[in-house]
């Protein structure tokens, strides 16, 4: 399987303080993987296997997968789930879908069914309690989906109950500030893929970069095409942990890589500990 340059897998270890967390859940371990784009090009078998091995070595209580399992055609999901079935978790594996998992009218059903068949629960405007009633796990459709309806879930949640929210696109954090979100886990941005040291993602300087890049080269660099300004609004939330008023957002850099590759933005497995 060919892969564009991505660099080695990086593990980001993130302690997150959660108010009213039941004592028995302190120290809870969650691993997050995102943005596989498993299509024979954008993710190597070696990197995927390493990410699964590394997650298993941490003996997580929960594993969460935050979308974009495929890129365009849905069929690669059948090979991907053969790999994902090796993931181990004490209390289950949960997923939400990304925008690419909805690319064709049939993609949502095919991807959801394949994940469900190996025991991964796909949440779609749903709440689950894999660790008991002391911690809610909320899963939302992709932010661009017409089915994105957080009110249908949050309005029925007890405000005193801590909650972790899986939402593929970090832009959804802007809307979700009207509810309590102890930790939102997102992906989608790939961290910007090309990051300028001390300055952040190149895409944040897109217009200046477009003007400075010869047209013949620009056409081969997706991040220098103006359509990228529609990928996400808040590029300032491209990777890492953010405090948004009373809520927290964590954005995973993903595993898959678009051309021309990653620079100062390695693929990521996130290891979260609740305290």
Automatic annotation (TrEMBL):
Residue spans crossing the bilayer: none
Pfam families (UniProt xref): Metallophos
UniProt-recorded name of the protein: Metallophosphoesterase
Highest rank taxon of the organism: Bacteria
PANTHER family linked: TRANSMEMBRANE PROTEIN WITH METALLOPHOSPHOESTERASE DOMAIN, TRANSMEMBRANE PROTEIN WITH METALLOPHOSPHOESTERASE DOMAIN-RELATED
SUPFAM superfamilies: Metallo-dependent phosphatases
InterPro entries to which the protein is assigned, alphabetical: Calcineurin-like_PHP, Metallo-depent_PP-like, Metallophosphoesterase_sf
Signal peptide: none
Chain ranges of the Calcineurin-like phosphoesterase domain: 28-191
CDD domains per record: MPP_YkuE_C (cd07385)
